[in-house]
Amino acid sequence: MRIASYVLPDGTGSYGRVDGDTIVDAGGLRGQYADLRALIAADALDALESASGETLAVSDVTMLPTIPNADKIICIGLNYLGHIKETGRDRPEYPSMFTRYGSSIVGHDQPLVRPTVSDKFDFEGEFTVIIGKPGRHIPKDKAYEHVAGYTCFNDGSIRDYQRHTTQFWGGKNFWRSGSMGPWMVTSDELGDPTKPRMVTRLNGEVMQDTSVGDLAFDIPDLIAYISTIIDLAPGDIIATGTPSGVGNFRDPKVFMKPGDTIEVEIEGIGTLTNSIIDES
Q1: What is the helix (H) or strand (E) element at residue 227, kind and residue range?
Q2: Domain range for residue 253?
Q3: Which of 59, 102, 124, 179 could share a disulfide with 155, CB 3.0–4.6 Å?
Q4: Number of folded domains in the chain?
């Protein structure tokens, strides 16, 4: 099942089941489960299978980040073997982690904002995990039991600010600089999460193209490691890192600019598309 979060034409925030180019709105379910995060926390995703709310065209709603109110957005750096190689670094002993704030993320078909202070706005297509079941000290062999589904992520990065210190945070949290969507695909529908191909395109040109199986730390590794530090809660986001091909390591470098279109397509999930505008 594919499930999206969005704003209805009347301005109401909602969620619903995606069927091709249409959405069956949650309708009355919102009275019990206010948003997708609440639905996941209640282990009630199956309720959307029989939802009988209004049917709308996807184009008639304003898409939100898949989980608009995630408690935690955890991003993993240097986690694709190809990307580690292009940076000239050694394979890390432990996952490199940083956090993003909700205000830095927009939904599918919403513009990403290049800040006034930099023109070094880079793309990072990422395969992303949505936590379904809470846990702490989760063993690797139980990790997938804690996954509700998967989505696409663009970890838009302001490269000069990212390198002001050894902490990535500065370049990763500019207002509306990243995106998530277009929807969540439930784990049972996607199947083996190591198999999908992920492609990032800038103005139609392929920039990144790899299998999710190129991860240095796979999904069970990440869930086990992160859950030794913090409790994982329903709706938490783990963006698993970006593959090789980012603009900063190209010769010449390639950065996003106003008028560009960036797409992150993951086999079995869909395509997250965003235009680029300047901060006004």
Answers
A1: helix 219-229
A2: 73-278
A3: 124
A4: 2
Beta-carbon contacts of 17 under 8 Å, excluding residues fewer than 6 positions away, are 1, 2, 3, 23, 24, 48, 49, 51
Question: Which amino acid, one-letter code, is at 248?
Answer: N
Bridge partners of residue 25, in order along the sequence: 16
Tens digit of pLDDT for each residue in 129-155?
999 999 999 999 999 999 999 999 999
Better-scored residue on pLDDT, 27 or 254: 254
Residue 149 sits in the same domain as residue 247: yes
Does residue 68 lie within any of the structural domains? no
Residue given tokens 């990440």 in the structure block = 222
Contact 111, 274 (CB under 8 A): yes
97 & 222 share domain: yes
Report pTM.
Answer: 0.96
175 and 236 share one domain: yes
Cα(138)–Cα(145) distance, integer angstroms: 10
Give the CATH number for residue 218: 3.90.850.10
